[in-house]
Write a structure and sequence with these properties.
Strand content: 15-25%
Protein name: VWFA domain-containing protein
CATH class of the largest domain: Alpha Beta
Distance between the termini: 42 Å
Strand order of the largest sheet: 5-4-3-6-7-8
Shape: globular
CATH topology of the largest domain: Rossmann fold
Helix content: 25-40%
Keywords: Plasmid
Number of domains: 2
Domain VWFA: 43-177
Largest sheet: 6 strands, mixed
Pfam family, one: VWA
InterPro entries: VWF_A, vWFA_dom_sf
Length: 212
Amino acid sequence: MRGRNKTHERGITFDGNRLILSQMGVRDVFRAQSESKNRGHVGLVLVRDISASMANDERYIHAIKSDLALSMAAESLSKMHVSNIVFPFKESEFEIIKTFDQSVEESLSKFTLGCKGYYTPTGSALMAAVDLLLDSQFDRKIIFLITDGYPNKSEFTIVEVMEKAKCNGIEIVGVGIKTDEIIGFETDTFVTVDDTSLLSIEVSKLVHQILS
């Protein structure tokens, strides 16, 4: 009996999210009892394109899987808060589907949103993410944009958003869905997801690239 209870006696429990992530190469599936309270000082906003063009070649499916994988990978790290935005949304340019205080599990049904809009207001959605982070107290602030790379005109241009983010110490990285170009991004600031079987590799590469 003692051997079966050993991990509990040492104050260690299984982390459900990390058990899922173990399939993606994460090896640390244990969590100290105090870890869940030690949330840290990194804020990450994931901004996902759900415009009509994402229906082409089932890009929206890759985008949803990327959004979930990145969210879960980040959520498993003790020093990160994650919020998620989709764009466009019905009559609005964007919608916050998960706040920093919510878990992926609590917001899971909203992650299925895809191909809801007929235009791509990338600049406005990114600016919303920038403003969300500016209202926070995190020591480090990061935005991941998940898109097929072709924005329409919106209230803000990609250049304007990039400049505001840079001036405020906010990092923006792109996840290109079946595209090797994201307008407004340099080649070293995005990764491409072409095959869902390689998603775990690209997610791992991106997370380590931005957090290193």
